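agent> Task received from the user: take the single chain below, predict its 3D structure, and emit structure tokens. No templates, no multimer pairing.
agent> Plan: (1) validate residues, (2) run structure prediction, (3) serialize to tokens, (4) report one or two observations.
agent> Step 1 OK, no nonstandard residues flagged.
tool_call: predict_structure(input=
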Amino acid sequence: MLYRAVAYQVADSIDLKTFRAAFPEPAHTFDKDEIFYTLQDDRYIYVFKYGVVCFLNFDEIKIAEFNQFIAPFCRNQIEVKLQEELVVETGAKEFRFGFDKIDILTGDLETFRIIMLNVSQSVALDYYSSQTTTLLEETNHHTQNLEKTGKLGMSGISLKKYIGRTLNLKNKIAENLYIFDSPDVTWENENLNKVDLGLKNTFDLQDRFRTVHDGLEIVKENLDLFKDLMQHRKSTALEWIIIILILVEVVNLAVEKIFKL
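)
tool_result: status=success, residues=261
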């Protein structure tokens, strides 16, 4: 039987607690990071706090209805939603992993859940990768400006906001993505472990994660340089202020002596 798993990055984050209280269906499992729902007709929904919703065996109309329902619980909604899709076929004699399709032995709940988790991680990596690319482009703009003019061209407040954006992104990635940690259930089930590892390889999750991580490290190194330049500029300005004050004091003393004469 064929199923369709599709994940959307709908927002920067989702308030799971208030959403779960408002959604009429009971959760199959939930914690502070994710909620998993099993509905009638072999339909499943996986909701993650990092702004991803994954559907399995849902048509486009039902997906649109759910995304509309969850919208009030989203923070910083994404207008053009990123998505990742995978066709799942059950009843295979052996596991087969293709570019956009996976063949599995049986369509049990835990296998579907592992598939949905990996699809969700993939679309989340796309989202974080796009944010990292934006930060790198901004960094390159400032470094090119520094090369051409010898000046940084940004204020201390702008630099602090820039540092904050970078650190927030690094923290979100470290907190939300489990690229290197397989779910506990895969440790005790060989088939689930094969599905998990196979999908990680299919989606290149680890390599993509490293690319994002390395990009953020480059941004951080540049930010450290910008911070040092900013501190040097402030120190230089302070030195000039002190020199000017000393000169003013010297002039005042000289004027007073002249008038005394």
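agent> Step 4: summary for the user.
Helices lie at 16-22, 60-70, 109-149, 156-176, 190-202, 205-260.
agent> Done.
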